């Protein structure tokens, strides 16, 4: 019986396995980078030719000409998809600014149907000149290959202390400032028992906000109650169930700071279903200043992040990275307190 035909290589990973090299090396050969030995380059190129591994987008990339397209990798929830409204506003500012500079956006989810996406493979095949990543953690699968490539990478709302490569640029809000503004405001209103509805615990926004929140409580000599610091995502559901846990405690806070407006909306819903009122029973502060904050009942006091500004700045930054690498490595943007109706003054500090 004849042996079955060998499987044709369809991805960079397939070529890398056949050549006995890394995916990064294959990418560098395809993109004609200079830091690959001639023997390795010849071996990889021979396998590429043998496998006829040259779809049109990759073939075009061999010319070294700019594609005038930017890849955007988004955190993708397999249940809700691109759920967080934060992404939409940033994407609008980013896309509009890129369009003004004659660049196009190519959007990739960070996972599809529960399976991680090969970032570098997607970027090479789509022949993007640079990539913007939103909501993607440093421990995300396949990030290392992208980090070790020469493709400019701009990370939104994350800092580069532990980034595994040299091609990263970072654009983030000042979440420490945001946490301090929220605690300062509540303290000025007389609140002395303050809880926190947290987001995804390993992300930079949630981690830095939480640390600053606890430090600010300590500055004021206020109790840090772990039973009042709950939640594990930025979604409405997370805020809904986190507030339920707080209400189950024998002693309850008079105010709660949320790490997203979506979580705050969920928390408001829990209070309503429990027969409690905001701010009469518990004051709530959100985070983001998404559009719905003005229409909740009560209208939500929150920490504003200028998402349109960030989108425009992200476009300017990634274009500068591509053209001459002149962009600053890290940029931290200020946030601001927006006062509405969801917090009340209390007279007793007991």
What's the structural blueprint in terms of helices and strands?
Layout: H1 12-19, H2 23-30, H3 38-50, H4 56-61, E1 69-74, H5 85-100, E2 104-109, E3 111-112, E4 115-116, H6 119-125, E5 130-134, H7 143-147, E6 153-156, E7 168-173, H8 175-188, E8 194-197, H9 204-219, E9 229-230, H10 236-247, E10 255-258, H11 261-273, E11 283-288, E12 301-304, H12 307-323, E13 330-333, E14 336-338
Parallel strand pairs: 1-2, 1-5, 5-6, 6-7, 7-13, 8-9, 8-10, 10-11, 11-12
Antiparallel strand pairs: 3-4, 12-14
Helix pairs in contact: 1-2, 1-3, 5-12, 8-9, 10-11
Textual characterization of the structure:
The protein has twelve helices and 14 strands. It has helices at 12-19, 23-30, 38-50, 56-61, 85-100, 119-125, 143-147, 175-188, 204-219, 236-247, 261-273, 307-323, and strands at 69-74, 104-109, 111-112, 115-116, 130-134, 153-156, 168-173, 194-197, 229-230, 255-258, 283-288, 301-304, 330-333, 336-338. The strands form three sheets. The chain has a six-stranded parallel sheet, with helices on both faces. Strands 9-8-10-11-12-14 form a six-stranded mixed sheet, sandwiched between helices. Helix 11 links the parallel strand 10 (255-258) and strand 11 (283-288). The longest helix is centred in the last third of the chain and has 17 residues, at 307-323.
How would you write the strand order of the largest sheet? 2-1-5-6-7-13
Alpha-beta content class: alpha/beta
Beta strands, count: 14
Assign a percent range to the helix content. Answer: 25-40%
Number of continuous helical runs: 12
What is the CATH topology classification name of the largest domain?
Answer: Rossmann fold
- Fourth-level CATH superfamily of the largest domain: Response regulator
Shape: elongated
Overall pLDDT score: 86
Domain tally:
3
Spans where pLDDT lies below 50 across 5 or more residues: 1-5, 55-63
Radius of gyration: 24 Å
* The CATH C-level class name of the largest domain: Alpha Beta
The proportion of residues in beta strands is 15-25%
| End-to-end gap | 86 Å
Largest sheet: 6 strands, parallel
What CATH architecture of the largest domain would you give?
A: 3-Layer(aba) Sandwich
From N to C, what is the helix and strand string? HHHHEHEEEHEHEEHEHEHEHEEHEE
